[in-house]
Design brief:
Length: 345
C-alpha cells in the first residue's frame, strides 16, 4: 500500500480541523443531552465509514476490508473505555457540563499516544518478526483476563496514578468551572478536573496497549492502523454522552470484547506460521460477536430505562461557590511596571 506524504498530511489536517470544530461547538460549558450526543455520534461514524469507502475505492477491496475490520475492533473496544470514563466521572462527581472539556483533551492525548504506540509497534514488527508471538500471547491473555473479570469494575480510589498525582501536585478540593489550574493566595494549584484528566489519560494508555496489538492482527499497514484508530477515537466523546447512562444494560458486552481479543490473538498466531485467515472472515466474526453480545444484553435488560451511575454520598470534591471563584487570582501574572525613581538633577 503506497501512501504519499500529502495523503498523510491531508488526513492529519482533517483530524485537526474536526477537533477544532468540535471544540468551538462546545466552547461554552453545557450539559450534552442524548439528542446532541446522538447527532455527533452519527457524524463521527459517517466520517469513519466514508473514509473506509475511500480506502476501498482507491486501494482496493482487501485494504478496504482491513480498514473496516480494524475500525470495528477499535470502536468495539472503545465502548469499554467509555464505561470506565463513566465510573471515573461518577466517583469524582464531575458536573456534566465540565465533562466534555476533559474528554476533548483526553481524546487528543489518546491520538498522540496511539500514534506513538503504532509507530513503535510497526518498527518492532519490521525488525523483530518474533514480536508477533508476544502480541498474540498478550491478546490471548488479555481476553482471558477480561473474561474472568467481566463482572468487576475499576475502582478510581485504588488508582496508583491518582495517589501519586495527589501526593506530588498541590490541589484544591473544589471544581472551579472548567479550569484545570488556578492561583490562590499566590500559589498555583491543580483543580480536581486536572486529576480526572490525568486518570482519563492513564486509562487511554492502558486501553491503547490492548487495542493496538489487536488491530495489527488484521492489517500490517500502518496507514490503516492509524486511521482506523483515529476515526474510532474521534467519536469517543459523543459515544460517552450517548451510552454513559446505559452501562447497566450492556451486561454481556465485556464477554463479547473478550472473545474478540481471543479471536484476533488466534488469528495472529495462525498468520505467523500456518495460514492467513481472509479479512472477510475476520470482519464477519468480529461483527457477529459484537452484534450478538449487544443483542443478548439489550434483550436481557429490556424495559430498563436510562440511569446514571450513582455518585458517592460523600464525594471527594465539590463545585466552588461564586465567592470562592471570585477569590482566585490570574493564573498568568503580568509583570507590574517598576515604580519610577527620582534622579537628582
Amino acid at each position: 500500500m503506497d501512501i504519499s506524504g500529502w495523503v498523510w498530511a491531508a488526513v492529519l489536517v482533517f483530524i485537526a480541523v474536526m477537533l477544532a470544530i468540535d471544540l468551538f461547538a462546545h466552547r461554552h460549558a453545557h450539559v450534552i443531552g442524548v439528542r446532541e450526543a446522538g447527532l455527533w455520534s452519527g457524524v463521527w461514524v459517517a466520517f469513519g465509514v466514508a473514509f473506509g469507502v475511500i480506502v476501498w475505492v482507491t486501494w482496493g477491496a482487501e485494504f478496504g476490508q482491513q480498514y473496516f475490520a480494524g475500525y470495528l475492533i477499535e470502536k468495539s473496544l472503545a465502548v469499554d473505555n467509555v464505561f470506565v470514563w463513566a465510573i471515573i466521572f461518577s466517583y469524582f462527581a464531575v458536573p456534566r457540563e465540565f465533562q466534555h472539556r476533559v474528554l476533548f483533551l483526553g481524546v487528543v492525548g489518546a491520538l498522540v499516544f496511539r500514534g506513538i504506540f503504532i509507530a513503535a509497534g510497526a518498527v518492532l514488527i519490521q525488525n523483530f518478526s518474533w514480536v508477533l508471538y508476544v502480541f498474540a500471547a498478550f491478546l490471548l491473555w488479555t481476553g482471558y483476563r477480561m473474561l474472568r473479570q467481566r463482572h468487576e469494575h475499576m475502582d478510581p480510589e485504588q488508582s496508583r496514578a491518582l495517589r501519586l498525582f495527589r501526593r506530588l501536585v498541590p490541589m484544591t478540593e473544589t471544581y472551579h468551572d472548567q479550569k484545570f489550574v488556578v492561583r490562590r493566595g499566590g500559589v498555583l494549584l491543580a483543580t480536581p478536573l486536572l486529576a480526572v484528566l490525568v486518570l482519563v489519560e492513564v486509562t487511554d494508555v492502558v486501553f491503547a496497549v490492548d487495542s493496538i496489538p489487536a488491530i495489527f492482527a488484521v492489517t500490517d499497514e500502518v496507514f490503516l492502523v492509524f486511521t482506523a484508530n483515529a476515526f474510532a477515537v474521534l467519536g469517543l466523546r459523543a459515544m460517552y454522552f450517548l451510552l454513559a447512562d446505559l452501562i447497566h444494560r450492556f451486561v454481556y458486552l465485556k464477554t463479547g470484547l473478550a472473545l474478540v481479543l481471543v479471536w484476533v490473538g488466534v488469528k495472529m498466531l495462525l498468520k505467523i506460521d500456518l495460514f492467513y485467515i481472509p479479512t472477510t472472515v475476520s470482519l464477519a466474526v468480529v461483527a457477529t460477536i459484537i452484534t450478538v453480545s449487544i443483542w443478548l444484553s439489550l434483550r436481557a435488560t429490556r424495559g430498563q430505562d436510562r440511569q446514571a451511575l450513582p455518585t458517592p454520598t460523600d464525594p471527594p470534591f465539590r463545585v466552588a461557590t461564586a465567592a470562592e471563584n471570585a477569590e482566585l487570582e490570574p493564573v498568568w501574572r503580568t509583570r507590574r511596571p517598576s515604580a519610577p525613581t527620582n534622579t537628582p538633577t
